[in-house]
């Protein structure tokens, strides 16, 4: 039963608070949040029954817990800026922590991780279908009226897909992760029809990233594909053939447009310039962030003082402080190194497939995380990281 609730929790997280929600005072109780509360209650009851608290000698696990407790204790600077902001940050970091605690407690084998990947793929597919519908019809059922016509009126004019996400950048980030999840699922499925559907979703998700016009995520996708192709030695010959065919198809697609159009594509889609408004805004956020950090003596402001960071790394540094930022860099590096190591596991091809997918996501996420206004605000990102940490734990503890 516990694993089934976990599947529901992960699957429903992609709907945010847009579907099957209850208004509980100022808070929207979504299916994902309700599932998390239920899982926490079950976890507490199981802990009382066993009469012991399980701790693991795993850096990722312990760092995520440290991050939560640091945020909890960092009240002094948090209340200075915003009490509600501090509570919100505590909740968002709590998603990383509570999800990690629960997943590592109840998910014990690779087969469960494989099922989770399938549920993630289905959840992303639904968002993908909504995004395609929005792009071709210009009809947005899930984006608020204020967002669509007041804050960002160009969404509808440019037909940017958003689905149930907050904006095109958040949607593109989901498609970025979905690309490599679908590649993994395509390799994991034994059914040829499911393989074909999974690989089709890869192409569709790449297209959706392109039309979302998110430069950082498009660049991250290219970087991650380069990493994946360079590290294909441990994958079977059949899968290497497929990936090479995919690369050829993409190459033909881009070379179909003559070289001038390719250069035009690079100049328009991947052009970064301080003359552009978005780069100036990001630089302004960076300057403000350093001021906040200095005023908090490096401990972090502990509050969601700035809504739009557009830089995940600065977001962590400013809100959680230098200590947590350094800890996060170590956590991220160790997680990537372990996934890279697991991707070369010749004893279990499924371990290799899943690890390579995670490593590819992490490799490009460094750049992809610069697109969305606030990564911490995207609840499903914390859940995805908890899945990665759980897989890492299973790999490191294998006999």
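-> sequence recovered:
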């Amino acid at each position: 039963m516990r694993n089934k609730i976990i599947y529901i929790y992960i699957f429903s997280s992609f709907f945010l608070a847009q579907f099957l929600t209850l208004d509980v005072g100022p808070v929207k109780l979504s299916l994902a949040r309700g599932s998390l509360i239920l899982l926490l209650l079950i976890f507490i009851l199981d802990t009382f029954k066993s009469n012991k608290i399980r701790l693991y000698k795993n850096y990722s696990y312990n760092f995520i817990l440290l991050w939560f407790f640091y945020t909890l204790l960092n009240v002094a600077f948090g209340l200075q800026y915003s009490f509600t902001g501090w509570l919100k940050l505590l909740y968002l970091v709590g998603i990383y922590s509570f999800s990690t605690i629960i997943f590592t407690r109840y998910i014990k084998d690779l087969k469960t991780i494989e099922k989770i990947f399938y549920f993630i793929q289905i959840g992303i597919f639904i968002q993908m279908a909504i995004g395609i519908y929005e792009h071709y019809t210009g009809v947005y059922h899930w984006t608020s009226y204020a967002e669509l016509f007041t804050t960002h009126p160009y969404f509808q004019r440019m037909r940017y897909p958003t689905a149930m996400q907050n904006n095109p950048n958040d949607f593109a980030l989901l498609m970025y992760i979905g690309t490599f999840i679908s590649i993994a699922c395509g390799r994991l499925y034994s059914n040829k029809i499911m393989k074909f559907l999974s690989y089709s979703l890869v192409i569709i998700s790449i297209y959706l990233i392109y039309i979302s016009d998110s430069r950082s995520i498009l660049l991250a996708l290219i970087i991650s594909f380069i990493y994946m192709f360079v590290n294909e030695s441990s994958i079977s010959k059949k899968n290497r053939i497929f990936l090479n065919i995919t690369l050829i198809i993409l190459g033909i697609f881009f070379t179909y447009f003559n070289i001038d159009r390719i250069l035009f594509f690079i100049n328009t889609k991947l052009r970064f310039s301080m003359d552009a408004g978005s780069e100036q805004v990001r630089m302004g956020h960076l300057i403000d962030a350093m001021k906040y950090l200095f005023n908090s003596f490096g401990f972090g402001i502990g509050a969601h003082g700035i809504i739009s960071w557009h830089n995940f790394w600065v977001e962590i540094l400013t809100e959680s402080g230098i200590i947590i930022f350094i800890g996060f860099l170590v956590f991220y590096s160790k997680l990537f190194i372990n996934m890279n190591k697991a991707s070369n596991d010749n004893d279990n091809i499924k371990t290799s497939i899943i690890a390579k997918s995670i490593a590819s996501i992490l490799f490009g996420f460094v750049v992809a995380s610069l697109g969305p206004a606030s990564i911490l605000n995207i609840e499903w990102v914390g859940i995805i990281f908890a899945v990665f940490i759980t897989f890492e734990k299973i790999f490191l503890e294998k006999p």
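Residues 57-234+282-396 form one domain.
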